[in-house]
Amino acid sequence: MDWFAAVDAYCERPGPGYWAEPVNALTNLAFLLAAAVMWPRVRAQAAGRRLCALLAVIGVGSWLFHTHANRLTGLLDVLPILAFILLYLQAASRDMLGLGRWQAVAVTLGFLPYAALTVPLWSRVPGLGSSAAYAPVPVLILGFAGLLWRSAPATARGLAAGAGLLVLSLTFRSLDGPLCAALPFGTHFLWHLLNALMLGWMIEVWRRHRLAAAGRPR
Q: 94 lies in a domain?
């Protein structure tokens, strides 16, 4: 496999140049901004610091992919997202569901077979395209919201709002190709902006739940 083979995956890119996707590239600053906003709010917690660090790394990885569009940078784009999902799942299982350490690890690792089984099903949905790889995530978030609806309704509502934001951002990600003729810049940049907002919000939901569980003000 040629890891440096060029990739042309988005509407905005007309060629292989570094600035071929200026809007898609620059909107990755939203991830850095979200991480900067959330860092002082969660820096007292190790898991919070790791989540913020990964949020910033997501922005860097996506920047590299939308400037050096090849298979290697494509991997650097998706791996931080997967790492964030796994870390958040572990933190949510432990802090929101109250699971023990190894139980939380088991739930976290269970995401991999869950995604492997469900992504092929989502890929059959017309128009979803490559966004099918992310489709299991809002379903999982809503599952956590359902489990917490009675015991922690504020957290459940926050998670449901996060799932809604992710569905909206996935919608714009999926529309990038179909709307390309009408919108030269495409809609992928809205995936960046909404996803940065959603990930920052998910960290905030986790933070608020921890404070509520400790009986402290938000």
A: yes
